[in-house]
Design brief:
alpha/beta, TIM Barrel, eight-stranded parallel β-barrel, 8 strands, globular
């Protein structure tokens, strides 16, 4: 199982693989598949709880899912997303909520969305001994500010801002950085500019690693699929087909056949 310092040292040595899990079963699959980091992302609000965005997710939701994930993946590094309004308000609330998550869950690090405006929060959490993963570029917790999920780092001003945010997050003590939906050239600039690993999502091939939302890549979540998701399976279609077959077998008295009762 990787520690945060070990992940930090992987930069330029090995591509880092991070995927999300929210429950025992998926966590056990990810561990068997050998991913480097499991993220209990606040994407759980959408793909697990059915909210329209990540904003309603609470610290208690994250802890509940973390505990299940830890039971399924005892030997994989787990990073916990800090949900909306668990760290933005003040350094004090950030430290308190990071501590609460770490105390109760089996996570070995937390992830926070934001740039310069949360520099103090990141530093304070690192100072109490909790590794922090940053997250810049598209920040889904700010969906209402953007009015959607637009590509980031397109114009020169944004490119410069993102590089300086990445540097600031590294200076604050983060061990890694997620860069979401950023133009690949800009993501490459960010990756070059910092000494910590940059884990991209929708940000092209030049990052130090990749992360996706697992139900997206499995084709299990069908509400919407961003362009950057490659579907490695069509789990939703296959599952509904299997469930439909079961339903019709019961109705047609084909299940349970002799093999399936005592
Ligand atoms: O919540 C999440 O799953 C994330 C990833 C998309 C990086 O933050």
């Amino acid at each position: 199982m990787y520690t945060a310092p070990q992940i930090a040292r992987l930069k330029s040595k090995k591509k880092i693989v991070m995927l999300t899990a929210y429950d025992y079963l998926m966590a056990s699959y990810l561990e068997k598949a050998g991913v480097d980091i499991i993220l209990v992302g606040d994407s759980l609000g959408m793909v697990f709880l059915g909210y329209k965005d990540t904003l309603p997710v609470t610290v208690d939701d994250v802890i509940y899912h973390l505990k299940a994930v830890k039971r399924g993946a005892k030997d994989t590094m787990i990073v916990a997303d800090m949900p909306f309004m668990s760290y933005q308000e003040s350094v004090k609330s950030a430290v308190k909520n990071a501590g609460k998550i770490m105390k109760n869950s089996g996570a070995s690090a937390v992830k926070l969305e934001g740039g310069l405006e949360i520099y103090r929060q990141i530093k304070a959490i690192v100072d109490i001994g909790v590794p922090v993963m940053g997250h810049i570029g598209l920040q889904p917790q700010s969906v209402n500010k953007y009015g959607g999920y637009p590509v980031q780092g397109v114009n020169d001003e944004d490119k410069i801002r993102l590089v300086s945010e990445a540097k600031a997050i590294e200076k604050a003590g983060a061990f890694a950085l997620v860069v979401e939906k950023v133009l690949s050239k800009t993501a490459a600039m960010i990756t070059k500019a910092v000494g910590i690993p940059v884990i991209g999502i929708g940000s092209g091939p030049y990052c130090d690693g990749q992360v996706l939302v697992t139900p997206d890549l499995l084709g299990a979540f069908e509400d919407f699929t961003p362009k950057f998701v490659k579907k490695y399976d069509n789990a939703a279609i296959r599952s509904v087909k299997a469930l439909h077959k079961f339903t019709s077998d019961v109705r047609n008295k084909k299940f349970p056949g002799k093999k399936y009762y005592y």
